Amino acid sequence: MSRIDNASPGGRFLGKILTHAPTNRRQHLSHMSTPEPPREASGQRLRESGLVGKGFTSDVYAWGEGRVLKVFHAWVPAATVKREFRLARAVYAAGIPTPAVFDLVEIKGRLGIVFERVDGPSMLTYTQARPWTLFRVVRQLAELQAQIHGCPAPLEIPTQRDWIAHGIAAAPDSSTAEKEAALRCLAGLPDGTALCHGDFHPENVILSARGPVVIDWTSATRGDPLGDVACTSRLIQNAGLPPWTPRYMHILLQCSRTFLHRAYLQRSLELHAGTRQQIAAWQAPLAVAAKSWRVPGTPNPS
Q: Are residues 152 and 231 in the same domain?
């Protein structure tokens, strides 16, 4: 497998991903029903907390010893936050390397989730400091994704087919005919039982001292690994970097995107039984569904 430089927190070969749930993790399964109403948290405490990260949908603050609070922007629907809370608990309980989930809170009308704090750069941040590692990192991304696919998905997680079909039905700016065509394509694609992340890209992998840790499981499903590869394939080909990413990274991505995609697909197909044509078959339904998943203010990856 590819190696990340030893200078990095994740600087070692990828270990075998945990495929069983230790006793303390299985205890989380008892809380997998609909989350209780969020606890009220102090706005003063949030103001006094240090910002440790930010994303398109949320900001992350230090929240006591060994914990962080992911506070979602006010426009994010409560159902989306509760979905992430529920799915993140299920994935953690299944034994996947992901932060523990502690609480659902509300601060002045904004919902947040309290997670275990995991220190280390994301794969994207790591490559910003070491652009020459970009191709090694994208191959390692494929390897980590394949290991996740080797883990059976918890039954609490929705099916990939249902998740994509729901996205197609909710897609704005798509005609009835376009939606029906996308659903027909989806109907001809295989089901599966693998754990699929649904939004797997370098910003969602933290290179910690204990190895890679995967975050942001809002789009997690139970389905076909090649469908999940197709999601990441689409992101590598079309998605833009966050606006706060250094300009040279935007230029580097623009120049290398085709080759990065080729490297990712090549490594993915070495690790999965399948073909490029089978991956490509997912793209038509994903293109329509993704219109309903797009974050406001970001480009539409077409």
A: yes
Assess if residue 6 is contained within a domain. Answer: no
pLDDT tens per residue across span 107-123: 888 899 999 999 999 99
Cα–Cα dist 14/146, whole Å: 11
Q: Which residue has the tokens 């099916």?
A: 159
Q: What are the contacts of 55-64 at 24+ separation with CB within 8 A?
A: 55/203, 55/216, 55/242, 56/242, 56/295, 56/297, 56/298, 57/295, 58/112, 62/117, 63/114, 63/117
Helices 283-293 and 225-238 pack at an angle, to 10 degrees, of 70
Band (pLDDT 50/70/90 cuts) for residue 187 is very high
DSSP designation for 69: E
Which has the closest alpha carbon to 88: 147, 28, 39? 28
Asked whether residue 245 falls in the same domain as residue 142, the answer is: yes
Same domain, 127 and 221: yes
The model's pTM is 0.85
Question: Looking at residue 60, which CATH number applies to its domain?
Answer: 3.30.200.20
pLDDT, average across residues 36-50: 64
167 and 206 belong to one structural domain: yes
Domain count, the chain: 2
